[in-house]
Each structure stands twice: as C-alpha cells, then as structure tokens.
Design brief:
By secondary structure, this protein is α+β, with helices and mostly antiparallel strands. Helices cover about 15% and strands about 25% of the residues. The protein contains two helices and ten strands, in the order βαβαββββββββ.
Amino acid sequence: MEKNRVSLIWPTYIGEFYNPDHAKNKNGLLDFFTEYKKNNKNSRAGGTVLSPDDKPQKEKYILDDDLYMSKYDLHLEKNEYYKKLIHFISKSIITISLQANITELKNFEYNKENLGVIIKDSWFIDYKKGGFVLPHTHPQCSWCCVYYVQVGDDVNSINGSTFFQKVRPPNQTSDFGSKYNDKTMIKVVPEEGKLVVWPQFVMHGSTPYQGKKNRIIISANALVRNQKLP
C-alpha cells in the first residue's frame, strides 16, 4: 500500500542568530571601525554596490557621502573583537548548513566536527542618513550574512532594513492554495547583536536609512567544507 507524502523541495532558508556576547564586544568593534576609517579610504565605488566583484567605470558614478564601506578582507585584520565575531558567524553558518542539508546527510560522509567555514569576504558598512544598497547577490560562496553592530535611530521594517526578494515565479492567482507564494519581499527589522544568514542566490539589499545616528553592519560570504573530504 502506497503512503501519501508531501515533500519540501528547494526551500529557502533564512537564519536569525543572536550573539550573547554582543554587549561586551560592541564598543571594541566600533573602536576598530573608527581606527580603520582613519587609515583606509571609502571602498564604495559610488552610486550603489552590486557585489564584492563589481568594478564599475568610475567616471559613470558619483562618489557620495551617505555610506562608508571597508575593503572585503576585513577578516584578515588582526583585531580580537572581530575575530570573536567571525567565530560566532562561523558557528551560526554551520548550524544553518546542517539544517538545510538534513535530507542529504544520510548519504553523505559527514561528521559535524569535520565541518569548517571558509570566510571568502567580510566587510563593514557605516550607513549615514540616506544610505542604502540596491538589490544584488554575492558570487562564489554558499552563504551570506549581515550582522547588526549598531542600529541607530527609528528601528523599523522600512528604515534601513535588510530586504529579501522572492526567488519563486510570481503568483498568478489569489486563492488560498497560492497564499504561501503571495509575498514578493521580506523585510528584516534590525536588532543589535542579530545575525541574519541566507543562501547565496537570494536577491537582497537595504532600504534607505533615515536615522541621525549611523547604522553599522558587518557582512560576510562563506563556504562550508567537510574537512575530511578532498
């Protein structure tokens, strides 16, 4: 006798993780970023940021002042507070990777202790009033993330929030059967100490930030390797 079954195919995983040590490390991170900005020019090409590999022709853009972006190799800097944060980010990415691959693990040579996270890129963005980032995806990684160091003023879903665009085709009906597919965008309300993790293929960006106190976030791109395999 056949058994009925409903399978979940190609779901989109969005993880939210809270750093228990955020309050202890926040000021150290902010001091690190302040010193970094003194010694490094704004790496933003201008206009907006499309991806870490985006190299637009500079003459077509006007460098504006609403956002400061570091270089993409911040994880190579020797700062104790940033290293602690990268450790938290890595543990969170392993957690969501295990959940996303739970149906694959039966046929996979796998041991949690052998999993290692490779940070491909990491950087911080200092949003001033009016700062935003247009929709984009990140190449050459499996997971992307944003960590809210300082959320600034007027925290809500339309003021400097991170948004994700739907990856499924548009919904063509309005019946109950298609209700799960009617949202075209999800906005995440920023919270200090919160890390949001999502798959590389999801289009995302940020709404314009209108607060007076700067909003500061950290982003990273990562791979997860099974160290036991070649």
